[in-house]
């Protein structure tokens, strides 16, 4: 409210905020509960958590409702809230082999250890409108759930862990795993240290983990279709719940405090190793919630930004990391709606002066 150039602007801003809140109450439908948003619009909530950089389903659902469905605005709110919270510590490194799987597929191999688990997805359906949802009610949902649960087997043996698909390639020496020295160092915390370039891979992965889904897809797609040389194969995609383990505050022993829903993607691309031997290189992506497009795009960009000779925007690390932060991009775009009277009047004066000079020069010729 300090950025106001006319008298009475504060009152106008407050009225605009009230009108926005009023727009959320349009019509005669029942108020949308935060629990409904969290349960039924879970993919939107997952996206807000990922781009906001905070795993908090209730708060993400609240932000989504408050922003009237604007994921950019909701992510902004969530990240702003996260910035106000104290930092108590860091979780211990985790491997997704121990995650509670709800979906696991590979396009590189038909048969994989543990099997393909399709899980909850709309990937294999026609994109046709389901008009039955217009009459969605409690009775319809009850019937649907009873039918689904009646098809379940009485007993199902679920493995405690699922081996990684890329281990098949690793065992045959087909995967390039030469790490740069900086990749073995303690990862920086980009929420407390500004990005500097060239950034270590760990910092780049942090930045992309909270990047904007659409922006990352755009750059990854540009490489896939020819503005780069990364046409990947999906080695493995996992969606599930990853145990969150921290050092116990009393004895320092590992202690599981809960679990976090994540999506992990590993993509493979042809690459010539540092010893000249052709191998596959690995791109890695992981993000909060179920957001498979983002995880795959992140994995592609991880591989792109490690290209030895960058030749396109998707392979330029600075370009990718700066332009895929949706909060940063939205803030800069939105700031053009604030008053720029002085700037524009200056441009206007210079344009008029330039035209006057041009006319005089034209007359003298």
Can you describe this structure?
The protein starts with 8 loop residues before the first helix and ends with a helix. The radius of gyration is 25 Å and the shape is globular. α8 runs antiparallel to α10 and α9 packs across α10. The N terminus is likely disordered. 27% of the residues are buried. A hairpin with a 5-residue loop joins β3 and β4. It has a 4-stranded antiparallel beta sheet. The chain has 2 domains: 75 residues, no CATH class; 229 residues, no CATH class. With 365 residues, the chain is α+β, with helices and mostly antiparallel strands. It contains 13 helices and 4 strands.
Question: What does the secondary structure layout of this molecule look like, with pairings?
Answer:
Layout (H helix, E strand, L loop, with lengths): L8 H15 L10 H7 L1 H11 L4 H10 L4 H13 L16 E6 L32 H13 L16 H5 L29 H9 L3 H12 L8 E15 L6 E19 L5 E11 L3 H13 L12 H7 L2 H9 L6 H24 L1
Antiparallel strand pairs: 1-2, 2-3, 3-4
